[in-house]
Every structure is written in structure tokens, then in C-alpha cells.
Fold these 4 entries.
Entry 1:
Amino acid sequence: MTTAALGRRVGYSTQQVRDLERLGVIPPAERGANGYRRYAGRHETAARAYRAMAAAIGPVPARRLMPTLIGAPVGAAAERIDDLHVGLAAERSRVREALRGLDVALVEAGEDFDDADAMTIGELAQALGIRPSALRHWEQEGLVHPLRGTASTRSYGAAAITEARIVAALRAGGYGIPAISRILEHVRQHADTGEVQRILQGRLVALTRRSVALLAAAGHLHALLVDRGEGD
């Protein structure tokens, strides 16, 4: 196929096809005797796989992933695909944890909590699937208010755990620090979690769409790996 013919088959312009090749999203084209690019079935398979992946996880992550699916060993490529499903499940779990956390009343920092309800920074970071440094950053930004034991120790009571769950879920949804700060301030001032609930419920709907789109991409990804002719 010519560049234009491939573009027509997969729904891209001629320039988009060239860009996909330059970015490693599709394999390099062969050159005909006249110097023009010549594409074959494997290029169409890769382009269709990318288009389906972009619908499921977004164009930028799909562009980053496609070179691995094209060039890495099949086992490594399959592992990366598995990671996508795991990532969606983990994010869905974080959003649901945040929704459950909204049942805990947010209170001002500094109020005493039962020691049995408190978590260390390491425990909370592990529960949320983030680094302790993220919790420290959120504290510096005024998003999360842990209790202070000494100058170097923190403990997280019910309110701080709820705050951290909300921040983790909104950050995973693409919300920036200023927007999250406004949302949390509204919750603290008005004891109204309705806005956060609407955002998180919307996030769950979006995650469901992505999961379904990833299932739709599975056939194209299977064709891509089979087309490489490696392994069983």
C-alpha cells in the first residue's frame, strides 16, 4: 500500500501515517524502487491496534506503548497489556475507597483521634499505592493534614485518611493541585461531599468506558502479536 492507501484503510491522513511511523507506532515502511514508502498488512494491523489503544488509554500513553508491542519480545508485550488491566482495576479501587471515605466526617486538623484509627505515612502510602513523598507534598500544599507526633513523625487519623483518599482519586483522574484544593476547602467549609461524589462517580463511569474500550482493542492487539510470528 501507499501512504495514502494505508491512511484511507485506517482512518488517518497521509501526514498522520508518516507521523505514526516516525514515532515508532507502526513499523518502518519499506521503500520501493522509486523511493516511495510501501506499507503491508503488518503496518495496517499496527495502526488499527494503536487506534483502538488510543480510544482505551489515550493517544499519548498508546504512542508510548506501541513501540514495545511492536519490537519487544512477545512475553514483555503481553505483560505490558496485562499492566493496563491491572492499572484500571487499581484506579477503580482507589476511587471506590475515596467514595467510602466520604462517609467519614472531615474535621479540622489537630483534633484528637483514637490511636487505633491512625496510620503511619508508610501504611497510608501503601494503602493508596503511592510514594510517601506524595503524601508529604500534599501536606505541603495544604491538601492533607496529618497529626504531628514529633518534628519528624506523622500519623493520619480518620479525616486525614479521607482527605488523602480523595486527593489520590482526583489526582488519578487528572485534577491539578489548585482544583483539588478548592474542592476540599468546599467540603471542609460546608460539610458537603456532593461535588466530590459527583466527580468520583463520573470517574467510575469513565473507567468503565476505558475498560470496555480496552476489551474492544484486545482483538487488534492479538492480531498484532500473532502477525509478528513469534512464539506459540
Note: The first helix runs from residue 3 to 10.
Entry 2:
Amino acid sequence: MKELDLLKKDWQKSDNTFVQVSENDIYIMIHKRSSSIVKWILIISILEVLLWTLLSLFSNSDDYLREIKHVELIPYFDALTYVNYAVILIFIYQFYKNYILISTTTSTKKLMQDILKTRCTVQYYVWYNLGMIVIYTIIAFTVAFIYNPQMEVLKEKIASNSNVMIITVGVLFLTSLLFFGLFWLFYRVVYGILLRKLFINYKELKKIDL
């Protein structure tokens, strides 16, 4: 009951104790929140690149290609890796630019535009990464099936029994789907939460701008 008594006392206080928040105060608060969200998007994307770079040191495709004696494929894999890193660095640079724009803007309309631009960039980044995961998975399975000597037994079984081919394709499809689903869930949770918060800020700004 003590809590109820305290609430009654607060309610009985003068109306002057309630501070009205102006539209400018709301804008400053949303501006600060939006800047913080975009900063976290930038930080997470950099950490993600560092994580994948670290993991690549423990699972080097060049070593695998040397093991199956097809070193002629190494330049192609290296070229794909360089292109992938170049594109990701461009995205990170865009995240940095968006962070600077949102941090320095002084207009409600401009902040709304920058928020939408940031959301769009992040969505493109997520879909690009998911697309590259699909491409890498297809290439990995194809190279393993065609060039890995250990696949010769499987090839003979497929040649003699068409059902083996169906089972193999089914297993590969389900494995790829599971792999893709895990990454989609990761991006959905990590970037999805930040994008939802950013869109809430956009809707609040829209009310102010009316």
C-alpha cells in the first residue's frame, strides 16, 4: 500500500511539476537514438568481416584445393574472395557515410531521408551476403563432387542407380537450406532488430513533420 500512497501524493502535486516536451526535444532524442543505431550497424558489420576473416584462417580453400590436387582453381577462388571483400568494404563505407550524415543532419526531413537510405543499404547488404552464401555453397558442392577423388564411389552408385542421385540431391538441398536458414536467422535477429528500431524513429519523425 505504500506504493499506492506515493502515487496518490504524486497525483495531488501541482500541474507545474509535469514538464511538457517540445517537438524539438523529441527530435533531439530521436536524432540521438538514430545515430546510435547506425553506429551499431557499422560496428557489427566490421566485427562480422573480422570474424569471417579469422574463420577463413582455419578453413583455407587453397589448402583443400592443394589436397585434391587442383591448384589451377586457386586463382578463381582468390579472385572471388577479393571481389567479395571489395563489395563488403563498399557497404561498410556506405554505413560509415550514413552514420556521419545522420549524426550531422539538422533537418527533420533530411533525417527521415537518411534513415530510409540506411535501411535500404542494410537490406541490400543482408541480401548480398545471403546471395554470396548460396553461391559459395553451390561452388563448394560442385568442386567437391567433380574434383574430389573420394566422390568416385558416389559417382559410380549414381551411374548404376538413379535413386542415389535423387537422394544425393535431396540431402544437398536440405543441407544448403539449413545452412542458408541459419544465416538468414542471424541477419534477421541482429540487423532486423536495429532496422525495426530505426523504422520506429522514422514513424515518430513523420508525426513531427506533419
Note: The chain is about 85% helix and 0% strand.
Entry 3:
Amino acid sequence: MSTSTESEGRSTSEARARLLDAATRIFYAEGIHSVGVDRIIAEAQVTRATLYRHFTGKEDLILAYLQLADRAIRGQVAAVRAQELAAGDTVRAVARSIADGIRSTGFRGCAFLNAAAEYPDLAHPVHQAVLAHRQWFLETSTELLAQAGCADAGAAGRHFVMLRDGAMASGCLSDPALVTETFLQGVDDLLQRHATR
């Protein structure tokens, strides 16, 4: 039998999840600056007091949105690594997961690049969250490419991130099928170019 405290905890976490879900959907589809807290409150069907019980304000909600996006991408990479493929195939599988995202319905580019464009001040917490995610992604890409036998894994990692950034930017501006085909071919070329001779 659940206690009233357990019920309140469940309803509190459900309200937070609804707020974060609404913010994630709207921020990604429409941009961050263009969306006010009143819109998020209405979409989440909660009160203003409930929003401020879970988040100190809009900036805190934005950071939670980016943390959620960060966890999702880390989860995709972890799922690929768990398959224990050959090192080069692991890099290709990570690239395919990126390509799948680009081809998905409602794709609007990279949540982190979009957020950085709206928050260009390097010292702003939102920009700092973007940089932290990108640093992790660069380090992870570099590690995977080193395991794949790339002679200069640092250069290969930077190259991979730039290919990914270009594909993410192009994927919502032109034909996603062509963009992802070009991206995946670029990753294959990258692996061959940087392979240890």
C-alpha cells in the first residue's frame, strides 16, 4: 500500500517530467529564446508554482533540457560500444546512429549547436553546458578512432566532429538521405585516411 508521501513524490516527479518533456519538445522545435515559461506551463498542464518548485527559472529548465540531450547521446554511444564490434565498425555504428537521428521526423539540427547560436556568450551557463558536451564528444570520438588504429587520433577526432557538425547543420536544410550518405562516406574516408600505415 503506497503512502501519501510516495504518492506526492510520484506526482511531483511526474510534473517535473511533464515540464521537461514540454520544454524539450518546444525548445528543440521552435528555439529557446522564442519560448516563454507561460507556454511551457500551459503545455505541461502545471501551475507556475509547480514550475518554480522544480526549476529555479527558465535557465535552469534550459540546462535540464541540455542535460537530457547529453544523456541521450551518451546512451547512444554506450549502446553501440556494448555491441563489442570491431573498432572501426564501432566508429561506423556511432556514425550510423547520428545519421538515423538526421533522418528522423522533426529533425531540426543539433540541440547543442542551436543552443550555442542562441547563447553566444562563452561565460553563460548554457554555452558552458554546450562546450562540456562537445568536449566529451570530441574525447570519445578521439578514443574510438585511436582504438580503430588512426595514426593521429587527435586530428581524426576533430575531423569526425566537424563531419558530424556539417551533417547536423545540413540535415535540416537539404535532403537528409543525401546528407547522411555523404556523411557516412566521409567517415569511411576518414578511417582510411588516418589508418596507421
Note: The chain has two domains: 1-55, 58-193.
Entry 4:
Amino acid sequence: MAHPTPRLILETLLPALRVAAAYAHQVQPYIAARPDKAADNFFGAALSDADLSVQTFIEVALLGSFPSIRFYGEEYERSYNTKYFRAIDLGEQDDYLVTLDPIDGTQFYLDGHSNYQIILGVLNRDDFEAVIAVTPAQKTYCYALRGQGCWQGKLEDSLDDCQPLRIQPSDAPIFLGWQMAGLAPLLIDRYSVISVATDYSKTTQIPNVNGILTGELTGVVIRKGQFIDGAALAFFAREAGGIATLHDGSPLPPLDQCQKYQAPGLIIASSTTVHQDLVTAIEKHSADTN
């Protein structure tokens, strides 16, 4: 099958994702860190045995089920299987690219926290078609299909058994990603603020970006939206009734206009009020620092 539907890809890979989730959960207490990757912060640099093992397992499932699929995994440079995929980049319209973050939140994972995920996306040339995110420690997952909405369920549930997921406005905190801490003084009069650069703890779990879907967060600002994680979570938010834009409030660009598998800085918000407050804070911070 040259171009399987996005839903078929999710349905076919869900059993493998369940096994990968069980593996990740089982080995977490004993997991070995590997030498850091090149990155500009310790979160991006974190790498574990589980990252490599989960990616290899999903690659095997993909090649066995869809041998002509395009695939880009976070650890493609270290993978034995990259050379067996037809391509690792975006193709023409409807020639889908599957992406994978084998352990989203590797530093959280290495420190024993429970809010890491396995995120798999199906990307078209212009936008995401589908994303599925498994949370192994909580034995849950959620998925979204382009223009059709977002659903959540227990790990053993089929896609059809999952329930609709809608983001609700709340008084939960704002999450500021790496290099976004300068926005905190402009927000603390109205919101609780969690800045990953200053508030991350090895012993006390803080929300990750995926907290926008669970109600742990009401807004998120990140300096870039990688296709494999941040941009995928923004797609979830859009399909779940939230708002996802660039820092200036403009719509996200088509994927084929992005560089290096990532969109520019993103805002993800639960409501128009939160979104506008974040746009205003970014504008003021930019004006004050220029």
C-alpha cells in the first residue's frame, strides 16, 4: 500500500506502541543514560537507552507494515534502520511522513517522573494529518486526526473506544519553555508561572508541555516547535479546541515552509484571553530587550 490513510497508520502501530510503552515503563527505574547529544540545553541533550530501543522497535513495526513509508525519528543519526526507509523528509501532498519522538521528555524520564510520552505523527506536506501520544507510566494515550478532533483513552482501548478530549479554560499555570523565562515578570500578576529553566526539579515533578492537554497548564510558550514534539502537541491542542500560533499570534506556517523539522516559536493556549495575554507579554518583552 503506497499511501495508507493516517488512521490506518495509527491503528496498525497502536499494538507496537503498547508494547513500547510497557517496555519504557518497565525499565525506567533501571534506565541507563547515554552520552549527551549536541544541544543548547540539558533537556535537548538528554539521551537514554529507551530512546534508541523504542525507536528501533517502532522502525521495525513500520518497515514490516508499510515498507515504502517515509520516516523521520529523533534518533535517525544513530539508527541502524534509517537507510531502509524510502526518505526521511516531507514528500509531495499525501505522501505522508511518519515522525517519532521515542521518549518525549527524556530528562523527565531519566529522573523518574511520570509525564514522559511516546509521540508519533503522520505529516502531510502542509500540515499534520494525525498524532498519537502514549503516556506509559499512566497507561493512557490520546490521538487526533486532522479536522476531526482529539480523543483520549486507556492504553488497552481501541481508537473507537476512546472519548473526546476538549481543552477547557482554567486558572492552571503558564509553562515557559527553555529561554522563555524572561516572560515570567510580565505574567505573574495574573498567572502562576512555571519556567522550566528555573523550576525543573529532579525530585519534584513539574508539568511538561503535554500538561496543556491534561488541564495542568492553561498556556505554553516555547521557543521552537519541533515536528516530533512541540508542533505535534500544538496540533493536539488545535484539534482539542485550544489555540496554537506563532509568538506574534499569526497562524502556524505550512510544514514545508519550516526549516530543520521545526516551526518557529509557539504559543499554545486554552482560551483567547490566555492567548492574547501571552502575545502581549512576548511583544512587551521583545520591545524591552531591543
Note: Residues 37-46 have pLDDT under 50 and may be disordered.
